[in-house]
Amino acid sequence: MPLRLGFTGDVMLGRVVNDRQRRRSVDAVWGTVLERLRGLDGLVINLECCLSTRGQQWQRTYRPFHFRADPDWAIPALEHAGVDVCTLANNHILDYEEVALRDTLEALDEAGIARTGAGETIDEALEPAVRTIGDTDTSDDDLEIAVIGLTDNTPEYAADEESPGTGWIEIDADDAEMRERVRETLERARETNPDLLVASLHWGPNMVTEPPESFQAFGRWLIEEGVDIVHGHSAHVFQAIEVHEGRPIIYDAGDFVDDYRVDPELRNDRSFLFVLSVTPDGDPLELRLHPTEIEDCAVDEASSEAAEWARERMRNLSAPFGTEFDRDGDALVLSLES
């Protein structure tokens, strides 16, 4: 039986979201999407904030926004949604400096939520998140996944051999040194013998609707290096999906939940829950896109109007890559079977 692994765009639980959650139920942030999330076999998110009540706002370089959420509600919320992996390689994990990063790592570890992309050192930041999903009581019906997290955002947040931070790279598929570092990171993930290898990338600037050629080349290169799905995020708006060698590249998954101002044209409040169906051996079968919409600092199933807008926009963005979708109810469906 196929297993279903969900991927989301940015999950930002700080600022107004954090304030609202202090006065409503733990599950409220997931809105009407909660049951769909809980029905998945696994779930990977980009956690776009630190989980801490400690620390001071980063002042060493100019940072206009600082995001953190109280782990007392945020961890139960992640657990209730069934989050298996949080990628932390992004431009907000050090917003409240090292103490808040360490609180985040500790809170996720204590909850048994796998994480990747940030750590006490660069070695830890590049360590893959490894998780078994599916019916773990039956070895024939589970899936071993390994997720690596990388970012080209905010180089001042980069970890090194002695300092905590993110798994930072400068994305250039022609850079031999960068390629070697990424190959080593992928090899560490492959050493865990996963059925499915995921590269989760927080790349590029905000409010950009198309991936640059360098990202396209890098995404294809990752697939050629053995990655089964590229999970991109950072732009706050969803971008195209490309299929390369039978594997999907989600160039940007957009925003899943936050408190951001909505651009009336780019509609950063609209995106999808991306659900990859795979065999127990890790062979991708299809990618299903369920339209979502952010309202009142929570994520909901998109209204009919919003869903139609999102489907049409995704079709138009993906068409230049030769990507064609079918339709099943509100969802777009991309077949990956050869």
From TrEMBL:
UniProt xrefs under InterPro entries: Capsule_synth_CapA, CW_Biosynth-Accessory, Metallo-depent_PP-like
Gene3D superfamilies referenced in this protein's UniProt entry, alphabetically: 3.60.21.10
Pfam families: PGA_cap (PF09587)
SUPFAM superfamilies: Metallo-dependent phosphatases (SSF56300)
Annotated ranges, domain Capsule synthesis protein CapA: 4-260
Organism superkingdom: Archaea
SMART domains, A to Z: PGA_cap
Entries under PANTHER family matching the protein: POLYGLUTAMINE SYNTHESIS ACCESSORY PROTEIN RV0574C-RELATED (PTHR33393:SF11)
Protein family: Belongs to the CapA family.
Name of protein: CapA family protein
Lineage: Archaea, Methanobacteriati, Methanobacteriota, Stenosarchaea group, Halobacteria
